[in-house]
Design brief:
- By secondary structure, the chain is of the alpha/beta class.
- It has 19 helices and 15 strands.
- The radius of gyration is 24 Å and the shape is globular.
- InterPro entries: GH (IPR017853), Glyco_hydro_3_AS (IPR019800), Glyco_hydro_3_C_sf (IPR036881), Glyco_hydro_3_N (IPR001764), Glyco_hydro_3_N_sf (IPR036962), NagZ_Beta-hexosaminidase (IPR050226).
- Keywords: Glycosidase, Hydrolase, Signal.
- Pfam families: Glyco_hydro_3.
- This is beta-N-acetylhexosaminidase.
Length: 579
């Protein structure tokens, strides 16, 4: 493939020129596009233009050539990325078929791709500790082999469309930590907050390169990660998804994650602009307000986004947030001031802007069609998870034809999406055998080991055995993982008595602590440790297997805990280990 530019601020000039040429040739009374086909009709066979089909050609040139050949229906399809029901492209259960009928008037994900000439699809799912589960309507990921078969089937359907020369976008929220869609058979990294505690962007980059390679092996080429939000509040919806409270340190971590993902051929999507960590409210429930002065956002929320842009991030996700000092009363998703004037103008981003889920309450105040039009006009290029695909598609087409949606804006958006696709093109797909391999596990373990933090107690030296491992409710799997890791490290583990090591995690509070624990370990944000009475307080910020292995090394006295809490905890130091 052509070299992916890491200087997107300068790429906008070329894109603007290409867009102007396309618009001048495709709009106005002389428009020779065919009459719109009924949405139930099969799409015509692909007729790729030479420039769009030739590997190695500049991605923007390939995109421009392809956009010039596409009908209105194809342009609209390129800016939509819905979810679908079912774990296979062409065969689904009756329940999944019913879900797809309600969502898009089709039975299967492949039919959805073909009917609406889609540019991409998001794979969804949820787990018990997932703060985003409210807008995950279904689950269509199970294991790597199943995901690869699903993505192969989706690409086969997309390859028959006129936009077929461009790779089909398949995205998912593989953040690692509490928001991780695919958990079985893959290398699981520690959370972003753990990486922030480690404070070593080179380890973050290596870990995310491993994670990106595994996504690519499953056929996923777009990750809605990393989270670039600075944790300025005790937000439970962002929490350990953030790299920390310091904008400068967070910026370095975000840039490392972007470089790692994109080196593996997976587009990064930094989120949630203009900064969800500056509100403790949850945009899955309402419209959070950012009431900070603009200068505070510029210095405290936006540096990680700027760092990601400098690192070459291909996408940025807009958020359902009301930034009162910039555009009061308007969610950033629908704010031209924030997305076009600030993100593109002030910060210089020229890649793809993707909405947060349009099935979330702040976006559902309008019909799916009107919301899609408003989002596109504000500066988004890709509409994510519309609550009704048919209405979003028809609404965009209607607005294009009555000119309430300028053709320039649609062409610009589709060109950006296709340019990103061609940047991802012509790369070999890794084998599934690369998943959870030794090198990838080591990258995750190195990052997890560097994250373990002592917030109270002696620095290192281990604990006296035998050890009893306890946990708050519902964490038996994690407790078992630590028990196994301790035994492997040579520590005797017993069912009762001895030194009590107590684990707490996402959503736990003071009532989940244990008064007689010698050691209390926070596996998510460490704020709860302020209430703990244990003489030794540790944080892993994550309950991944790699984090439990790292914790066992510290408890066994075999490794020195070198992490620093990336967020302030009342009454506790960032570390008792000096440095």
């Amino acid at each position: 493939m052509g070299r992916v530019s890491t200087t997107p601020r300068r790429a906008g000039v070329a894109l603007a020129a290409l867009t102007a040429l396309l618009v001048s040739g495709c709009s106005g009374p002389a428009d020779r596009r065919p009459d719109p086909a009924p949405t139930s009709a099969a799409a015509p066979p692909a007729t790729p233009t030479p420039a769009a089909s030739v590997p190695g050609t500049d991605p923007a040139a390939r995109a421009a050539a392809l956009v010039a050949s596409l009908a209105d229906e194809d342009l609209v399809g390129q800016v939509l990325m819905p979810y679908a029901y079912g774990d296979a492209a062409t065969r689904v259960s009756p329940g999944s078929a019913a879900g797809n009928q309600a969502l898009a008037g089709v039975d299967t994900p492949a039919q959805m791709v073909e009917k609406y000439r889609l540019g991409g699809l998001i794979l969804v799912g949820f787990s018990a500790d997932d703060p985003t589960k409210g807008n995950q309507e279904t689950t269509n990921v199970d294991n790597p082999k199943q995901v690869r078969a699903l993505t192969d089937g989706l690409r086969a359907a997309a390859g028959r469309l006129p936009a077929g020369p461009a790779p089909f976008l398949i995205g998912t929220d593989q953040e690692h930590g509490v928001v991780t869609r695919i958990t079985d058979g893959v290398t699981l990294l520690p959370s972003a907050l753990a990486a922030g505690a480690a404070g070593r962007p080179e380890l973050t980059e290596a870990a995310w390169r491993a994670a990106g390679t595994e996504l690519a092996a499953m056929g996923i080429n777009l990750d809605f990660a990393p989270v670039a939000d600075v944790l300025a509040t005790r937000s439970t919806v962002i929490g350990s998804r953030s790299y920390g409270a310091d904008p400068k340190l967070t910026a370095g971590q975000v840039a490392g994650a972007v470089r790692g993902l994109q080196a593996a051929g997976v587009a990064a999507t930094v989120k949630h602009f203009p900064g969800h960590g500056h509100s403790a409210a949850d945009s899955h429930e309402g419209l959070p307000v950012l009431d900070q002065p603009r200068r505070t956002l510029e210095t405290g929320a936006w540096p990680p986004f700027s760092a990601a842009i400098d690192a070459g991030t291909m996408a940025v996700m807009s958020a359902h947030l009301d930034a009162r000092s910039v555009d009061p009363g308007t969610a950033a998703t629908f704010s031209h001031k924030l997305l076009t004037d600030v993100l593109r103008g002030q910060l210089g981003f020229q890649g793809v802007v993707i909405t947060d889920g349009m099935n979330m309450p702040p976006a559902k105040r309008w019909s799916p069609g009107e919301a899609a039009v408003r989002a596109l006009k504000a500066g988004n290029d890709l509409i994510l998870m519309p609550p009704n695909v048919r209405q979003a598609y028809d609404g965009l087409l209607a607005a294009l034809r009555d000119k309430s949606l300028p053709r320039t804006r649609l062409v610009e958006a589709a060109t950006r999406v296709l340019t990103m696709k061609f940047k991802l093109a012509d790369r070999p797909t890794p084998e599934l055998s690369t998943l959870a391999g030794p090198a990838h596990r080591k990258a995750a373990e190195d990052l997890a080991a560097a994250a373990v933090t002592v917030l109270r107690g002696a620095c290192g030296g281990g604990v006296r055995g035998p050890v009893t491992v306890t946990s708050s409710g519902g964490r038996e799997h994690t407790r078992a993982a630590l028990t196994e890791a301790l035994k492997a490290a040579g520590v005797k583990v017993v069912a009762g008595g001895g030194t009590v090591v107590h684990l707490v995690g996402y959503g736990d509070g003071a009532g989940d602590l244990r008064a007689d624990a010698a050691v209390t370990v926070a596996m998510d944000t460490p704020y709860v440790l302020a209430k703990a009475k244990s003489p030794t307080l540790l944080a892993t910020y994550s309950s991944s297997r790699a984090s439990m292995t790292a914790l066992a090394g510290v408890l066994a006295g075999k490794t020195r805990p070198g992490g620093r809490s990336p967020v302030p905890v009342t009454g506790l130091s960032a570390t008792t280990c000096g440095a």
